[in-house]
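Sync notes, pocket subgroup
Present: LS, DG
LS reminded everyone that the earlier model was apo-only. Rerun requested with adenosine-5'-triphosphate included. Inputs:
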Amino acid sequence: MAESGATLSNLSTESRAFPPSEEFAAQANATAELYDRADADREAFWAEQADRLSWSRKWDKVLEWNAPFAKWFVGGQLNVAYNCVDRHVEEGNGDRVALYWEGEPGDSREITYADLKREVSRAANALIELGVGKGDRVAIQMPMIPETAISMLACARIGAMHSVVFGGFSPGALKARIEDAECKLLITTDGQYRRGKPAPMKENTDEAVEGTSIEHVLVVKRTDIDVPWTDGRDVWWHDTVGTASEEHTPEAFDSEHPLFILYTSGTTGKPKGILHTSGGYLTQTAYTHNVVFDHKPGESVYWCTADVGWVTGHSYIVYGPMANGATSVMYEGTPNTPHEGRHWEIVQKYGVSIYYTAPTLIRTFMKWGEQIPAEYDLSSLKVLGTVGEPINPEAWMWFREKIGGERCPIVDTWWQTETGAIMIAPLPGVTETKPGSAMKVLPGIGATVVDESGTPVGNGEGGYLVLDQPWPAMLRGIWGDEERYRDTYWSKFAEQGYYFAGDGAKYDEDGAIWLLGRVDDVMNISGHRISTTEVESALVSHPTVAEAAVVGASDETTGQGIVAFVILRGNAAKDGGDEAIKALRDHVAKEIGPIAKPRNIMVVEELPKTRSGKIMRRLLKDVAENREVGDVSTLADSSVMDLISSGMKEGKED
Ligand code: ATP
Ligand code: MG
């Protein structure tokens, strides 16, 4: 138990640990000496990683660091799309499948690297024809179809920047992002499939485009529904890209040439337009995709289930995997359309060997029941990955047993839109993993957990996660807002020059890193600073609980009291009575200590989540403190909050 006043208490302990099998270790891409090499000479290590790519001009200098602004591979030139596409064709791998695409209604497409080269070249020519050039911004709002990746690569090919906006965002959200980046072109589709039905897309994007800097709207026909049309402005993909020449010579751009802007998912507040550039970003995404997932080109079948509208989709559907010549699965739809076994059906169909997903989805699969994946052959799986939130040990164990057949290493990967690529994760052939821990800072990366004064904390202690060295894929700023960039990330530990990630973390007794959620969400109970993650994990480890979110609500006696919102599992759902609630409170006390016992537990049907699946605790805090619920614009389903505010069953203190 931590002393009162400590930065963050360390409440839970985990004794389970899983070393990699000898068999896996023997064939793994990364070995333990990677850490030594990176420690010995960090810049030489990153230069070695940059050699994974094809450069038209070699860099003069690995790193130029004028805090908080970094330049990586200074003087180097490359074309990102050439690296992700043409290069593989030139190396004789044109016949290799780049994308196994699976549409929601059951249609599918196979796209080889040779196909991709033709399509990206065509799209690049069409973009130029539409007046897009080097440095221009292109907004993309599209569903998960191959043309989305093709559009991104076409922008990269001609040196334009893309700003991909998640397909489910409202016209208002799209408009704000178009205006912020002053985009010239919007690429979209007529409609998109959602839970088995075509839904309009262009109708919404038209509303967003009104009165902005957008000159043309390029429209992919996906659902064949009727669309409003503005002559002169709107053009069909099949009429322009479809008829463009498939010859396009990529130009080499500076290593620091901007590649894209991406807005954060907005869990904590107003989304930030994060700027990423070329050489360093591609180097780190390619390196991490290779070592963290143990990717074997031409052999692995890789599936990242994220939406391409989030950073995970950018770095681990498009850039990292494609730089490595990966064969990827891309799936258009929701995991329960038309049935709850859809993901496992796809794993079985394509022999997926690497499966990378989010904890929220794993908890959903748990809720649906283990009998569903049990119906499919999942023996092709070799490595499992998670990202987006801390994963509760119980969900981790379920993932390991029910999906990974107890044989697949799980890599819990910590990173952010801002970091561009994975920063903390186990190496699957090297690191002994523990359920719920992201384990170790990757070779070449500098991260540490510090207290309020910026001093590193010891094993068994919690604090703030900071990055103490610049890294190749780091953000180069917030679009158009240098002050917010300095203020958000570099002001808290200005003296030490640390990047402040905004996340709480701890070292366990063995020095493994555990992410503990947002620092803003940390609860202060009678002077003990308790993370939301540990209490949530304790709740989820009770057999009746499917999901949990906790917040600190102001409390006259203790400063804050813990208020928990829980979703009960299918068979337990009816039994949210006083007995059941008391059992849950006692369970938390037993698991991590009486101090963490929730003051109230509310049984709910749903939790408020962002479009990227993250729980928005600040809204629950509004409910817990009987306030008007705050900004819900980045919420996936805003009706959830009404449901919670009105219909909850409350478990009072005993
Ligand atoms: P905003 O910054 O606008 O609030 P966001 O932080 O949700 O949005 P992202 O960049 O998509 O936007 O999310 C990064 C955050 O996700 C991290 O800061 C961390 O809180 C969480 N996260 C990501 N991966 C992990 C992980 N493996 N373990 C724990 N937390 C994770
Ligand atoms: Mg963030």
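DG: The first strand starts at residue 61 and ends at 66.
LS: The radius of gyration is 24 Å.
Action: DG to write up.
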